[in-house]
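Reviewers of the previous submission asked for a worked example of the structure-prediction workflow described in the proposal, so we include one complete record here. The input consisted solely of the amino acid sequence. No template or homolog information was supplied to the procedure at any stage.
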Amino acid sequence: MKRRDVRFSIYLALGTLGAALAVFALAGCGGNSGPIPGAVGSGNTGGTSSGGTGGNGIVLAALLPDGQTGATRVGKETCGGCHGPGKATEDDVDKLTTFNETMHAKNGIECEDCHGPGSNHVNAAPENRKTTILGLPNIAKPEVCGQCHGAVTKAALPALDQYDQWSASKHFEIVEREAFRPGCNLCHFDLARVIVGEEGGVDPTEEEVTALHTVSCAVCHDPHGKGADEPQLRHPTTKPYDAALIGPTVSSNAVLASFDHVCAECHNGRGIDGSDAGLNKNTSRADVHHSNQFNMLVGQGGSEVGAAPTKRATAHMSIERQCVHCHMGAGAGNHTMLAGNQGCTPCHAPSEAASLRSSAQSEIQGKVLSLQARLNAWGEGANLDDMGEASWEYGSEGGPSSASQKVIPIEVKRARHNYAYVVRVAEAC
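From that input alone, the workflow returned the following C-alpha coordinates.
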Protein backbone atom coordinates (compact mmCIF):
# COMPACT_ATOMS: atom_id res chain seq x y z
CA MET A 1 0.00 0.00 0.00
CA LYS A 2 1.03 3.63 -0.48
CA ARG A 3 3.10 5.21 2.29
CA ARG A 4 4.20 8.74 2.96
CA ASP A 5 5.93 10.88 5.55
CA VAL A 6 3.22 11.58 8.08
CA ARG A 7 3.19 14.86 9.99
CA PHE A 8 1.33 13.32 12.93
CA SER A 9 -0.41 16.58 13.67
CA ILE A 10 -1.99 15.33 16.86
CA TYR A 11 1.31 14.26 18.35
CA LEU A 12 2.92 17.61 17.63
CA ALA A 13 -0.14 19.45 18.87
CA LEU A 14 -0.15 17.51 22.10
CA GLY A 15 3.41 18.56 22.58
CA THR A 16 1.95 22.02 23.16
CA LEU A 17 -0.67 20.70 25.53
CA GLY A 18 1.85 18.59 27.34
CA ALA A 19 3.98 21.66 27.71
CA ALA A 20 1.21 23.43 29.58
CA LEU A 21 0.12 20.41 31.61
CA ALA A 22 3.56 19.14 32.49
CA VAL A 23 5.23 22.54 32.87
CA PHE A 24 7.39 22.13 29.79
CA ALA A 25 10.16 24.65 29.36
CA LEU A 26 9.16 26.97 26.56
CA ALA A 27 12.03 26.96 24.13
CA GLY A 28 13.03 30.25 22.59
CA CYS A 29 12.91 30.70 18.88
CA GLY A 30 16.29 32.31 18.47
CA GLY A 31 16.32 35.53 16.54
CA ASN A 32 18.40 38.59 15.89
CA SER A 33 19.88 39.02 19.32
CA GLY A 34 23.09 40.79 20.09
CA PRO A 35 24.24 44.22 21.16
CA ILE A 36 22.31 47.23 20.03
CA PRO A 37 24.83 49.36 18.10
CA GLY A 38 25.68 52.58 19.85
CA ALA A 39 23.51 52.02 22.90
CA VAL A 40 23.99 53.78 26.19
CA GLY A 41 27.41 52.93 27.56
CA SER A 42 28.82 52.07 24.14
CA GLY A 43 30.49 55.42 23.60
CA ASN A 44 28.03 56.27 20.83
CA THR A 45 25.21 57.94 22.71
CA GLY A 46 23.10 60.86 21.74
CA GLY A 47 22.68 64.13 23.54
CA THR A 48 21.52 64.28 27.13
CA SER A 49 19.61 66.73 29.23
CA SER A 50 19.94 67.45 32.90
CA GLY A 51 19.82 64.18 34.82
CA GLY A 52 19.20 62.10 31.70
CA THR A 53 21.22 59.09 30.69
CA GLY A 54 20.95 59.90 27.02
CA GLY A 55 19.66 57.86 24.13
CA ASN A 56 21.14 55.75 21.38
CA GLY A 57 21.79 58.24 18.60
CA ILE A 58 22.38 55.56 15.95
CA VAL A 59 19.21 53.58 16.66
CA LEU A 60 16.97 56.60 17.08
CA ALA A 61 18.33 58.36 13.99
CA ALA A 62 17.31 55.39 11.86
CA LEU A 63 13.75 55.53 13.19
CA LEU A 64 13.09 59.28 13.24
CA PRO A 65 10.75 60.80 10.63
CA ASP A 66 12.21 63.17 8.05
CA GLY A 67 10.49 66.07 9.81
CA GLN A 68 12.69 65.56 12.85
CA THR A 69 15.96 66.13 10.98
CA GLY A 70 18.14 68.72 12.66
CA ALA A 71 15.98 68.90 15.79
CA THR A 72 17.50 69.60 19.20
CA ARG A 73 16.41 68.70 22.69
CA VAL A 74 13.97 70.94 24.55
CA GLY A 75 13.54 69.14 27.90
CA LYS A 76 10.57 67.37 29.42
CA GLU A 77 9.07 70.49 30.96
CA THR A 78 8.63 71.91 27.47
CA CYS A 79 6.93 68.67 26.46
CA GLY A 80 4.69 69.08 29.49
CA GLY A 81 3.35 72.33 28.08
CA CYS A 82 1.14 70.23 25.84
CA HIS A 83 1.44 66.74 27.29
CA GLY A 84 1.21 67.67 30.98
CA PRO A 85 -1.23 69.44 33.33
CA GLY A 86 -3.51 71.58 31.23
CA LYS A 87 -3.84 68.86 28.57
CA ALA A 88 -3.61 71.06 25.51
CA THR A 89 -3.12 68.14 23.11
CA GLU A 90 -5.85 66.61 21.02
CA ASP A 91 -5.81 63.34 22.99
CA ASP A 92 -6.47 65.29 26.22
CA VAL A 93 -4.11 63.13 28.27
CA ASP A 94 -1.71 64.32 30.96
CA LYS A 95 1.21 61.99 30.18
CA LEU A 96 3.93 63.96 31.94
CA THR A 97 2.43 63.62 35.42
CA THR A 98 2.05 59.85 35.15
CA PHE A 99 5.46 59.53 33.51
CA ASN A 100 7.09 61.40 36.40
CA GLU A 101 5.95 58.56 38.70
CA THR A 102 7.65 55.85 36.65
CA MET A 103 10.95 54.12 37.29
CA HIS A 104 12.20 55.67 34.05
CA ALA A 105 11.66 59.21 35.27
CA LYS A 106 13.08 58.43 38.69
CA ASN A 107 16.25 57.21 36.99
CA GLY A 108 16.66 60.34 34.90
CA ILE A 109 15.10 59.16 31.62
CA GLU A 110 13.20 61.92 29.82
CA CYS A 111 10.73 62.11 26.93
CA GLU A 112 13.36 62.77 24.26
CA ASP A 113 15.45 59.74 25.24
CA CYS A 114 12.76 57.69 23.51
CA HIS A 115 10.97 60.13 21.20
CA GLY A 116 14.06 61.92 19.95
CA PRO A 117 14.78 65.67 20.07
CA GLY A 118 11.64 67.79 20.11
CA SER A 119 12.43 71.29 18.85
CA ASN A 120 10.94 70.74 15.38
CA HIS A 121 7.83 69.23 16.95
CA VAL A 122 7.37 72.14 19.34
CA ASN A 123 7.73 74.71 16.55
CA ALA A 124 5.68 72.89 13.91
CA ALA A 125 2.26 73.91 12.68
CA PRO A 126 -0.52 71.76 14.18
CA GLU A 127 -0.98 69.78 10.97
CA ASN A 128 2.73 68.84 10.93
CA ARG A 129 3.26 67.89 14.55
CA LYS A 130 2.82 64.16 14.09
CA THR A 131 5.48 64.08 11.37
CA THR A 132 8.08 65.96 13.43
CA ILE A 133 8.49 63.57 16.39
CA LEU A 134 9.08 59.84 16.76
CA GLY A 135 5.62 58.39 17.32
CA LEU A 136 3.65 55.33 16.27
CA PRO A 137 4.43 52.98 14.69
CA ASN A 138 8.22 53.36 15.10
CA ILE A 139 8.13 54.44 18.74
CA ALA A 140 6.70 51.00 19.64
CA LYS A 141 9.64 49.16 18.12
CA PRO A 142 11.60 47.19 20.73
CA GLU A 143 14.85 48.69 19.46
CA VAL A 144 13.83 51.95 21.14
CA CYS A 145 13.76 50.15 24.49
CA GLY A 146 16.79 48.08 23.54
CA GLN A 147 19.04 51.12 23.39
CA CYS A 148 19.14 50.92 27.20
CA HIS A 149 17.72 47.46 27.88
CA GLY A 150 20.21 45.64 25.65
CA ALA A 151 23.31 43.54 26.01
CA VAL A 152 25.67 46.49 25.59
CA THR A 153 24.60 47.77 29.00
CA LYS A 154 25.08 44.37 30.61
CA ALA A 155 28.60 44.97 31.93
CA ALA A 156 27.53 47.98 33.96
CA LEU A 157 23.86 47.06 34.47
CA PRO A 158 23.39 43.26 34.23
CA ALA A 159 19.69 43.52 35.02
CA LEU A 160 19.01 45.51 31.84
CA ASP A 161 19.57 42.77 29.26
CA GLN A 162 15.87 42.33 28.49
CA TYR A 163 16.16 43.08 24.76
CA ASP A 164 18.39 40.09 24.02
CA GLN A 165 16.32 37.88 26.29
CA TRP A 166 13.14 38.91 24.47
CA SER A 167 14.86 38.34 21.12
CA ALA A 168 15.23 34.68 22.08
CA SER A 169 11.56 34.28 22.99
CA LYS A 170 8.43 33.33 21.10
CA HIS A 171 7.21 36.88 21.62
CA PHE A 172 9.94 38.04 19.23
CA GLU A 173 8.64 36.09 16.22
CA ILE A 174 7.35 38.01 13.24
CA VAL A 175 3.69 37.17 12.72
CA GLU A 176 2.04 36.36 9.42
CA ARG A 177 -0.36 38.75 7.76
CA GLU A 178 -3.37 36.63 8.71
CA ALA A 179 -2.96 37.91 12.26
CA PHE A 180 -3.59 41.44 10.98
CA ARG A 181 -7.33 40.70 10.97
CA PRO A 182 -9.44 42.59 13.54
CA GLY A 183 -10.08 40.39 16.54
CA CYS A 184 -7.06 38.14 16.02
CA ASN A 185 -4.76 41.14 15.92
CA LEU A 186 -5.43 42.02 19.57
CA CYS A 187 -3.07 39.22 20.58
CA HIS A 188 -1.09 38.50 17.40
CA PHE A 189 -0.16 42.03 16.36
CA ASP A 190 1.61 44.28 18.84
CA LEU A 191 0.51 47.64 17.45
CA ALA A 192 -3.15 46.64 17.43
CA ARG A 193 -2.85 45.51 21.03
CA VAL A 194 -1.35 48.84 22.06
CA ILE A 195 -3.49 51.13 19.90
CA VAL A 196 -6.83 49.31 20.18
CA GLY A 197 -6.63 47.04 23.20
CA GLU A 198 -4.82 49.40 25.56
CA GLU A 199 -5.29 52.94 24.24
CA GLY A 200 -8.85 52.59 22.94
CA GLY A 201 -8.04 53.69 19.38
CA VAL A 202 -8.95 52.22 16.01
CA ASP A 203 -7.19 49.44 14.10
CA PRO A 204 -4.01 50.72 12.45
CA THR A 205 -3.94 50.55 8.69
CA GLU A 206 -1.49 48.27 6.93
CA GLU A 207 0.36 51.31 5.61
CA GLU A 208 1.20 52.27 9.18
CA VAL A 209 2.89 48.95 9.86
CA THR A 210 6.62 48.80 9.23
CA ALA A 211 7.42 45.72 11.33
CA LEU A 212 5.24 43.18 13.10
CA HIS A 213 6.06 41.18 16.18
CA THR A 214 3.83 38.95 18.21
CA VAL A 215 4.46 40.81 21.47
CA SER A 216 6.80 43.76 21.81
CA CYS A 217 7.70 45.69 24.97
CA ALA A 218 4.80 48.16 24.90
CA VAL A 219 2.21 45.37 24.82
CA CYS A 220 2.97 44.48 28.43
CA HIS A 221 4.63 47.68 29.67
CA ASP A 222 3.20 51.18 29.69
CA PRO A 223 6.05 53.62 28.99
CA HIS A 224 4.03 56.58 30.30
CA GLY A 225 2.46 55.09 33.40
CA LYS A 226 3.42 53.50 36.69
CA GLY A 227 1.12 50.61 35.85
CA ALA A 228 -0.26 47.81 37.97
CA ASP A 229 3.15 46.53 39.04
CA GLU A 230 6.64 47.89 39.61
CA PRO A 231 8.03 47.39 36.06
CA GLN A 232 5.29 49.62 34.59
CA LEU A 233 3.07 46.72 33.61
CA ARG A 234 -0.28 47.54 32.07
CA HIS A 235 -2.01 44.77 34.02
CA PRO A 236 -1.42 42.78 37.23
CA THR A 237 0.42 39.46 37.27
CA THR A 238 -2.03 37.76 39.65
CA LYS A 239 -5.74 37.36 39.06
CA PRO A 240 -8.48 34.83 39.89
CA TYR A 241 -10.40 33.07 37.13
CA ASP A 242 -13.39 35.01 35.74
CA ALA A 243 -15.81 32.88 33.70
CA ALA A 244 -17.64 35.98 32.46
CA LEU A 245 -14.50 37.14 30.65
CA ILE A 246 -12.58 33.97 29.71
CA GLY A 247 -15.06 31.17 30.36
CA PRO A 248 -16.42 28.58 27.87
CA THR A 249 -19.45 30.70 26.95
CA VAL A 250 -17.46 33.76 25.84
CA SER A 251 -17.16 34.16 22.08
CA SER A 252 -16.08 37.79 21.67
CA ASN A 253 -12.37 38.26 21.03
CA ALA A 254 -12.62 41.79 22.40
CA VAL A 255 -14.06 40.49 25.68
CA LEU A 256 -11.54 37.63 25.89
CA ALA A 257 -8.66 40.06 25.34
CA SER A 258 -9.95 42.46 28.02
CA PHE A 259 -9.15 40.15 30.95
CA ASP A 260 -7.11 42.18 33.43
CA HIS A 261 -4.02 39.96 33.64
CA VAL A 262 -0.78 40.75 31.84
CA CYS A 263 -0.37 37.18 30.54
CA ALA A 264 -3.92 35.84 30.52
CA GLU A 265 -5.33 38.69 28.44
CA CYS A 266 -4.00 36.62 25.52
CA HIS A 267 -3.08 33.27 27.05
CA ASN A 268 -6.63 32.17 27.76
CA GLY A 269 -8.83 29.48 26.22
CA ARG A 270 -10.73 31.78 23.83
CA GLY A 271 -14.05 30.32 24.91
CA ILE A 272 -13.17 26.62 24.57
CA ASP A 273 -15.72 24.32 26.18
CA GLY A 274 -13.93 21.09 27.10
CA SER A 275 -16.96 19.43 28.68
CA ASP A 276 -18.50 16.34 27.09
CA ALA A 277 -21.45 18.46 25.96
CA GLY A 278 -19.09 21.03 24.49
CA LEU A 279 -17.06 18.39 22.67
CA ASN A 280 -20.18 16.82 21.19
CA LYS A 281 -21.85 20.01 20.01
CA ASN A 282 -19.97 20.16 16.68
CA THR A 283 -19.70 17.63 13.91
CA SER A 284 -15.94 17.75 13.58
CA ARG A 285 -14.23 19.51 16.46
CA ALA A 286 -14.79 21.94 19.28
CA ASP A 287 -13.75 25.57 18.98
CA VAL A 288 -10.12 24.90 19.83
CA HIS A 289 -7.50 27.55 20.32
CA HIS A 290 -3.91 26.94 21.35
CA SER A 291 -3.67 29.58 24.08
CA ASN A 292 -5.52 28.16 27.08
CA GLN A 293 -2.58 28.23 29.50
CA PHE A 294 -4.29 30.37 32.15
CA ASN A 295 -7.47 28.28 32.09
CA MET A 296 -5.35 25.19 32.67
CA LEU A 297 -3.44 26.91 35.46
CA VAL A 298 -6.68 27.53 37.35
CA GLY A 299 -8.18 24.12 36.53
CA GLN A 300 -10.85 25.30 34.11
CA GLY A 301 -11.80 24.41 30.56
CA GLY A 302 -10.77 20.75 30.32
CA SER A 303 -12.83 17.59 29.90
CA GLU A 304 -13.78 16.66 33.45
CA VAL A 305 -14.00 12.90 33.99
CA GLY A 306 -15.49 10.98 36.90
CA ALA A 307 -17.58 11.86 39.92
CA ALA A 308 -14.78 13.32 42.04
CA PRO A 309 -14.67 17.13 42.05
CA THR A 310 -11.94 18.69 39.95
CA LYS A 311 -9.14 20.19 42.02
CA ARG A 312 -8.87 23.83 41.09
CA ALA A 313 -7.23 25.72 43.96
CA THR A 314 -3.77 24.34 43.30
CA ALA A 315 -0.54 25.77 44.66
CA HIS A 316 0.47 26.91 41.18
CA MET A 317 -2.79 28.83 40.77
CA SER A 318 -2.35 30.52 44.15
CA ILE A 319 1.36 31.30 43.91
CA GLU A 320 2.36 34.94 43.97
CA ARG A 321 2.62 36.42 40.45
CA GLN A 322 1.28 33.17 38.93
CA CYS A 323 2.81 32.72 35.44
CA VAL A 324 5.63 35.19 36.06
CA HIS A 325 6.87 33.29 39.11
CA CYS A 326 8.04 30.32 37.02
CA HIS A 327 8.55 31.84 33.58
CA MET A 328 10.34 35.02 34.61
CA GLY A 329 11.67 34.23 38.07
CA ALA A 330 15.16 35.03 39.25
CA GLY A 331 17.55 32.56 37.66
CA ALA A 332 14.74 31.25 35.45
CA GLY A 333 13.34 32.67 32.23
CA ASN A 334 13.43 36.44 32.56
CA HIS A 335 12.29 37.85 29.21
CA THR A 336 12.98 34.61 27.33
CA MET A 337 9.90 33.25 29.21
CA LEU A 338 11.85 29.99 29.52
CA ALA A 339 10.49 28.27 32.63
CA GLY A 340 13.42 26.83 34.53
CA ASN A 341 13.70 24.68 37.62
CA GLN A 342 15.08 27.66 39.54
CA GLY A 343 11.69 29.32 39.18
CA CYS A 344 10.13 26.60 41.33
CA THR A 345 11.83 27.84 44.48
CA PRO A 346 11.14 28.19 47.35
CA CYS A 347 8.48 25.48 47.17
CA HIS A 348 10.75 22.97 45.40
CA ALA A 349 14.49 22.58 45.23
CA PRO A 350 15.70 22.75 41.61
CA SER A 351 16.59 19.03 41.64
CA GLU A 352 13.14 18.07 42.94
CA ALA A 353 11.47 20.33 40.37
CA ALA A 354 13.46 18.68 37.58
CA SER A 355 12.35 15.23 38.74
CA LEU A 356 8.68 16.20 39.04
CA ARG A 357 8.67 17.86 35.65
CA SER A 358 10.36 14.90 33.96
CA SER A 359 7.85 12.51 35.51
CA ALA A 360 4.86 14.62 34.40
CA GLN A 361 6.25 15.03 30.89
CA SER A 362 6.82 11.29 30.56
CA GLU A 363 3.28 10.53 31.71
CA ILE A 364 1.71 12.95 29.23
CA GLN A 365 3.93 11.85 26.34
CA GLY A 366 3.14 8.22 27.12
CA LYS A 367 -0.58 8.89 26.81
CA VAL A 368 -0.07 10.81 23.59
CA LEU A 369 2.01 8.04 22.04
CA SER A 370 -0.54 5.46 23.14
CA LEU A 371 -3.33 7.44 21.52
CA GLN A 372 -1.29 7.88 18.36
CA ALA A 373 -0.78 4.12 18.21
CA ARG A 374 -4.53 3.60 18.45
CA LEU A 375 -5.15 6.10 15.65
CA ASN A 376 -2.53 4.40 13.50
CA ALA A 377 -4.12 1.03 14.15
CA TRP A 378 -7.50 2.39 13.07
CA GLY A 379 -5.90 3.89 9.96
CA GLU A 380 -4.18 0.62 9.07
CA GLY A 381 -7.54 -1.16 9.12
CA ALA A 382 -9.48 1.56 7.31
CA ASN A 383 -6.76 2.09 4.66
CA LEU A 384 -8.53 5.10 3.14
CA ASP A 385 -7.15 6.00 -0.30
CA ASP A 386 -4.46 3.40 0.28
CA MET A 387 -3.07 5.62 3.07
CA GLY A 388 -2.65 2.85 5.63
CA GLU A 389 -2.02 4.06 9.18
CA ALA A 390 -2.05 7.69 7.97
CA SER A 391 -5.77 7.46 7.10
CA TRP A 392 -6.70 9.49 10.16
CA GLU A 393 -4.63 12.49 9.02
CA TYR A 394 -5.95 15.88 7.92
CA GLY A 395 -7.53 16.48 4.54
CA SER A 396 -4.69 18.80 3.60
CA GLU A 397 -2.04 18.14 0.95
CA GLY A 398 -1.21 14.44 0.91
CA GLY A 399 -4.12 13.46 3.18
CA PRO A 400 -7.32 11.49 2.51
CA SER A 401 -9.69 12.80 -0.15
CA SER A 402 -12.87 14.68 0.72
CA ALA A 403 -14.95 11.58 0.09
CA SER A 404 -12.76 9.52 2.41
CA GLN A 405 -12.89 12.23 5.04
CA LYS A 406 -16.64 11.75 5.26
CA VAL A 407 -16.29 8.15 6.43
CA ILE A 408 -13.79 8.91 9.20
CA PRO A 409 -15.60 8.43 12.55
CA ILE A 410 -16.35 11.55 14.53
CA GLU A 411 -14.27 10.26 17.44
CA VAL A 412 -11.20 10.09 15.21
CA LYS A 413 -11.83 13.56 13.81
CA ARG A 414 -12.08 15.02 17.28
CA ALA A 415 -9.08 13.15 18.61
CA ARG A 416 -6.78 14.43 15.88
CA HIS A 417 -7.66 18.11 16.31
CA ASN A 418 -8.91 18.72 19.82
CA TYR A 419 -6.61 18.96 22.81
CA ALA A 420 -9.23 18.44 25.51
CA TYR A 421 -10.78 15.46 23.72
CA VAL A 422 -7.40 13.88 23.12
CA VAL A 423 -6.54 13.94 26.81
CA ARG A 424 -10.02 12.63 27.62
CA VAL A 425 -9.59 9.71 25.22
CA ALA A 426 -6.00 9.18 26.29
CA GLU A 427 -7.21 8.45 29.81
CA ALA A 428 -8.73 5.24 28.47
CA CYS A 429 -5.48 4.07 26.88
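The chain has a mean pLDDT of 74. We consider this example representative of the routine output the project will generate in years two and three.
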